[in-house]
Batch of 3 targets.
Target 1
Amino acid sequence: MTTVLLSLGSNLQPQQHLHAAVAALRQRFGTIIVSPAYRTAAVGFDGPAFLNNAVAIETELPLDALDAWLHALEDAHGRDRSGPRFSDRTLDIDVVFYGDLIVEGPGHLRIPRPELKHAFVIKPLADIAPDFIDPVSGLSLAALWRAHAQRDEVFEVVALVPADGGHDQRS
């Protein structure tokens, strides 16, 4: 089994889309660890604020199969890939870490994800896996967060809700 750390984000009906994504991940992978969801400003474009969180899973799926499954989950939630790279998202799920694997070079998949530099990625990851070691820097996620320029900022925590607007305490 490989420990995989995912970054999730949405700025279109984000509470519902992230809740549904967490439920789908739990159904597919069983026990998962879920960070709080934080509200953050859009990066790279002018748009509604995002909710971002992180999920840790254990899987036997190879990286390419996992990535395809996650893309299908995004698509099932109305992900539009036709627009600019930085744009509104119903659901965005990135594999930030796949064990200690490092993937660079051609193609869209890079592990660890370059977005790791953003507070909206590193903070939720450090919340759920503080002792996880970044294979590039050799530092723990807790150490990377402590060194981050935004570490002293307060981030608004937002509860995730099912699509019907009810409350599900499991997420």
Target 2
Amino acid sequence: MAGKKQFDMDTVLDAAMVQFWRSGYADTSLDDLSRATGLNRSSIYSSLGDKDALFLRCLDRYATRYGAKFNAALSCAAADPVAAVRAFFDVTLGRIADPAVPDGCLMAQSVMASPALSPNVAEHVKELFGQQRPRLRTALKAGGMPDESAEDFAVHVVAVNQSLAVMGRAGSSPDQLRAIVGVTVDALARALRR
């Protein structure tokens, strides 16, 4: 159709996601989103909705992209739960090392920004953030860990995983981050041998 601007939705959503990831929700303006996506304000509103709607789409995109990677990493948990958790951490370490994406974790950053978010968006952030613990608990139980221990280790692994994102953003070296992972994986291996 003549005069209608065409754009690739995936490219636009990735650009918006990276903008929110880099600057956070509160510090990302519509002008920032316009520059990042190449769309003017009216195109953003008509195609993507208001800032909250776009942010929710970006969060879902992030959760889907990395959730699929975490699920794939944990898929071998029944056969080798230690290797599965190591692979889980490798997803995060790979993201931290990827120069194409900002440092840190969009989900953790968004949870910390909850007071600046609308109640609807803040609740959605908490729901998405909460997906890690049951994902890990299920994997650990599949690997033979009793329910209570699986829950405790799932909470611990989530906490360590988020600390990797924060420490990576703060400038910790890849060797330091791998050492942190090593301590957790070794503790898991010892717990599974009991």
Target 3
Amino acid sequence: MKPNTTSRQPQRANNERRASRKLNKPKRPRGPQKIILFNKPFNVLTQFTGEEGDTTLADFIPVKDVYPAGRLDKDSEGLLVLTNDGILQAKLTQPQSKSPKTYWAQVEGEPSDEQLDALRNGVTLKDGPTLPAEVERMAEPPVWDREPPIRERKNVPTTWLAITLREGRNRQVRRMTAHINHPTLRLIRYQMAQWTVDDLAPGEWREVTLHSGQ
């Protein structure tokens, strides 16, 4: 008589799902929690290794066993949060957490109210519609000079926008402003969760605690 393996299959599948969830579940650090705030300069990779000639996080941050919570593109600047806490990292990056991230974007031209409303309501990109965003015009912020400076066209004004997202797609701000025909010339991440880039010069970092605010 052949053994009945049919009844075992659902149990085996359940065990495999539980094992998979356990392996993928973010973990608390074994040692003290570390949180690093870093002002990433332009043209720096958001990783500790790269190809020959690349500038990486290892050129600035000597702290071991911390990893970026999300990415910041090579041609973007500003706040990067690094941590050894997998649960905090997931909270800052996973879409379901809707953790806010505020960017300062210098765009070409002067977007109309209707165009900004489109960003606020959500626009449809190649990978689907974006969530509603908070978008406001702002005065030029007192930020550091970028090296090299942006390429500006004479007789074409630029506008600074403060854009707060609760999702994190690849190059999302740049794609959103391009969608309304106002390309982003410079992009700085100003805030992530409770932390900002205030008082950090490009290339500087400091360690904070979870409830220390700035």
